[in-house]
Amino acid sequence: MSERISTPPGRSRGSADPITLDDDATLHAMGYPRKLTRRFQAFDNFAISFTIINIISGIFSSFGYGLNAGGPRILVFGWIGVSVMVLFIGAAMAEVASAFPTSGALYFSAGKLAKRHKGAWSWYTGWLNFVGQIGGTAATGYAAATFIQAFIALQWPSYEPTTHQTVLITAAIVIVQGLANTYTVHLVAVLNRISVWWLLIGLVVIVGTLVVMPDHHQSASFVTHFENNTGFTNGLYGGMLGLLVTSWTFTGFDGSFHMSEETVRATVNAPRGITRSIGYSAITGLVLMLALVYSIRSYSEVAGAAAPPVQILIDGLGMGWAKAILLIVIGSMLFCGLANLTSNTRQIFAFSRDGAMPGSRWWHSVSPRTRTPVKAVWLAVGCSLALVLPGWWSHTAFTAIVSVNVVGLFLAYAVPIFLRLRLGDAFQPGPWHLGRWGRPVGVVAVLWVLLSSVLFMLPQASPITVDSFNYAPIALAAVLLIATVWWFATARRRFHGPVSYGRPDEVAAMDLI
Fold first, then answer.
1. Which of 348, 346, 457 is CA-nearest to residue 404?
2. 31's torsion region: left (phi>0), alpha (psi -120 to 50) or beta?
3. Which helix (H) or strand (E) holds 212?
4. Nearest CA-CA partner of 202 in 43, 332, 292, 310
5. Where are the alpha helices (DSSP H) in 354-437?
6. In 135-191, beta strands by DSSP E
7. 97-100-104 Cα angle (round to 5)
8. Per-residue pLDDT averaged across 129-140, rounded?
9. pLDDT tens for residues 357-405?
10. For 344-359, what is the mean pLDDT?
11. What is the crossing angle of helices 185-212 and 163-182, to 10°?
């Protein structure tokens, strides 16, 4: 990966190099005035994606599924393989982020990279990204609520969790996260810095206790153990489903892209934030995965438990330590949801700035006191609560709605990468780019997104019932159908992709800061 100076999009080869331009001048060159405060340093930008990926939250939430879909062999080696594939996606996205460092991120770059039908490419990418992020905020809050109730049940055995309580706790979590995002971006940056240390120190505590305290560990060869309890007789199919454990974890790294307009030296720090968050998550996640796998005492008991990682903690560490570590996990999930909501808000802000959402004038307004898009924050909160609400009557209904989260996000990731490939040598990279490796890395990234998206939409358990049915394809089809009807009904006449507010000198005069 290279960081040599190159020409920014929309500028001639004889123009000033982007590395000599300040962040505002880069933003003005893309047609936007500055509305948001630049308080994110390189570490802050990295922190938001690292927190959203959140290996503690992701692994603890999906570990049980992996035990039954491939077992240790897929959990460990699948983690390694899929992490590499995700790093290809992140590197390809980072190259695009360096060229177009805006809050609009994926949908903006899709509109700029498309040769034809710029509005349509931008429209579909934006709505896939929006729905995926809303689903992510709702799902993360729901997972946190589930683990909070698991902790309460351990502390007070008479407590019985219900779906109604889970929905109410989720709603409270999302509202508190909305309040935190309402205040200054400086507060969000501080909380994200804390979250990184919470994750790293929490990882050391969890791994350290699992290595030292249990009186039994599995043998070295246990990592090759294969288990297929998915109900499907084909072991290869069951193992491929197990790869989804890692894919579920590695979402949200576009957060660094969305925070570009609030990041110092965004053309370099945003792409670094994307790639570093994936790389560090891959390494730390592998360590955590190995610690959990080798601490399994009774495979059948753990695989059949309601919360397999919690059962591992109880078996190996005792109830007291299990409850303490569960608090670390809950904290990680809460930080994850907070960062996800922040990223979601910036996408709404930018999408509305270009007139792509109902009531756009409301959602891209910025508070003069905090310099944050407060109305966009509460739109994101409201939409997330709307997705959580069906869980009041049925967990299956909630799962059906948020199942589009990962598929929608990864498809949104793939679109600008695909368009960058199709543009070929006409693509003008930013100062962070892949050089001659850009094309092969992009090809691998797009192919992996297509393969993993198919896996996400295939049946994941047998026999297939109303409760076990995979609703992801139905949810995705519904999103695309609504977006298509809306596009042909009204949007195509008024939305033509990212807009420019004027020449650089004109938009500079519109700066609010």
1. 457
2. left
3. helix 185-212
4. 332
5. 360-363, 374-388, 395-402, 404-423
6. none
7. 90
8. 90
9. 888 788 878 877 777 888 999 999 999 999 888 888 877 777 777 677 8
10. 87
11. 130
The Cα 355–Cα 84 span in angstroms is 37
In whole angstroms, what is the distance from residue 319 CA to residue 53 CA? 28
Predicted local distance difference test score (pLDDT) of residue 20: 39
Domain assignments of the chain as residue spans, ordered by start? 26-494
Question: Amino acid identity, residue 77?
Answer: F
Is 465 a residue whose pLDDT tops 90?
no
Q: How far apart are CA 32 and CA 424, in angstroms?
A: 26
Contact between 265 and 42 (Cβ < 8 Å) = yes
Residue type, 118: K
> What are the residues whose beta carbons fall under 8 Å from the beta carbon of 413, sequence distance 6 or more?
89, 93, 106, 254, 445, 449
Confidence at residue 513, expressed as pLDDT on a 0 to 100 scale: 56
Chain segment 466-486, per-residue pLDDT in tens: 878 888 888 888 889 999 999
Q: Which residues contact 73 (CB under 8 A, 6 or more apart)?
A: 223, 224, 225, 226, 239
For the record, the structure tokens of 200 come out as: 């790293």
The percent of residues above 90 in pLDDT, for the chain, comes to 63
Label residue 482 left, alpha or beta by phi (over 0 means left) and psi (-120 to 50 means alpha). Answer: alpha
Q: What is the pLDDT of residues 440-453, one digit of tens each?
A: 999 999 999 999 99
Task: For the chain, give the mean pLDDT.
Answer: 89
Q: Report how far apart the first and last C-alpha atoms of the chain are (Å, whole number).
A: 34
pLDDT(276) > 50: yes
The 10 Å Cβ neighbour count of residue 510 is: 13
Count of all residues that appear for the chain in the document: 513
Gap between the Cα atoms of 425 and 261, Å rounded = 27
Encoding tokens for residue 24?
């505002």
Pair 8, 26: CB distance under 8 Å = yes
**Domain 26-494: top CATH class:** mainly alpha
How many CB atoms within 10 Å of residue 395? 16
Give the C-alpha distances (Å, rounded to integers) separating 369 from 182, 338, 373, 380, 496.
11, 21, 11, 20, 32
What does the block give as tokens for 261?
């307009």
Cα–Cα distance measured from residue 275 to residue 86, given in angstroms and rounded to the nearest whole number: 10
Calpha distance 77→294 (Å, rounded): 14
Which of 23, 120, 107, 183 has the alpha carbon at shortest distance from 350? 107
In the block, tokens 């200054």 appear at 184
Q: Give the per-residue pLDDT at 391.
A: 84
